[in-house]
Write a structure and sequence with these properties.
This protein is of the alpha+beta class.
């Protein structure tokens, strides 16, 4: 008897190690071609927290979920498009919940996926969190699709926390700001700041502590003048220090640099997250 499309897809996932590995070795449950078939705007970038591998996400909403999870101080690793390679189990869950399971062209059960698996440091160890994204900028009250209800129950039975992110994508100021900070955080994690960077950082922190200026942007320009550098160098220093939480301010504002200095906090040390060795999906 010929294998069903579902069985062929499960075999392909096993052959290509989809959903296996951690950090740089993780293999997403979707190929680039499959992601490109979606209707969203694709985003492609490398992430040091994921071992430096390339991340490809198929929509602004999925990128928003990734950025918010990445910004969490306890996040160590992120695995996108994690496949649930036991259609028989998810089909049974659907039957028990009284809802329809998604089907492939030949009627066999589809292989469901979780949008993002996030490994976070807990008090005495590490724990995985499953995140799925629901784009809802046009309808904030949009009902949870049946497939996500199945995935939620799948993880509940495994003792894994499942969370739903109702995302407005780049309509959210915090998401736009996190995307602006992301490359600066990557630079600080992967390329040790050189002497010129450190001079500009020290100058900016000194200006912030003096609090003679109304906004962070004004402090950036003053720091650049004091070191004989163009204003853009002061702005870059501020974004780098915000990205590593050396300067802490609000992220839900239209312009990060227009924040008043009175509302900012200067911390003693930067955050530098890295995935623990050997951490894997169960």
């Amino acid at each position: 008897m010929d294998a069903t499309l579902s069985e062929k897809l499960v075999a392909r996932c096993a052959r290509e190690r989809r959903g296996e590995g951690s950090g740089a070795s993780y293999v997403p449950g979707l190929t680039q071609r499959q992601i490109a078939r979606g209707v969203g705007r694709m985003h492609r970038f490398c992430c040091a927290r994921c071992g430096g591998r390339q991340i490809i996400l198929g929509s602004d909403a999925e990128l928003a979920t990734f950025l918010l999870a990445h910004w969490h101080p306890g996040t160590c690793d992120l695995n996108e498009y994690f496949p649930l390679t036991d259609p028989a189990e998810t089909e049974l869950i659907a039957s028990q919940l009284g809802i329809a399971h998604p089907r492939m062209r030949d009627g066999s059960p589809s292989v469901l996926r979780t949008g993002l698996m996030v490994l976070r440091k807990t008090g005495d160890g590490y724990a995985w969190i499953a995140l799925d994204t629901l784009a809802c900028q046009l309808d904030p009250a949009r009902a949870v699709p049946d497939a996500m209800r199945i995935v939620s129950e799948y993880w509940r039975r495994r003792g894994v926390s499942w969370q739903l992110s109702r995302s407005g994508g780049f309509n959210d100021c915090q998401v736009r700001n996190l995307w602006q900070l992301f490359p600066h955080g990557e630079y600080m994690l992967t390329v040790s700041p050189n002497a010129d960077d450190q001079v500009q950082h020290d100058a900016l922190l000194g200006e912030c502590r003096r609090c003679r200026y109304r906004s962070l942007r004004e402090a950036c320009h003053a720091a650049a003048r004091s070191t004989g550098r163009p204003p853009g160098d002061g702005v870059r220093a501020a974004l780098q220090l915000l990205a590593i939480r050396r300067i802490v301010g609000r992220l839900d504002v239209p312009d990060l640099l227009r924040q008043p200095l009175s509302g900012l906090k200067i911390t003693r040390a930067a955050r530098c997250g890295c995935p623990p060795n050997g951490a894997r999906n169960e």
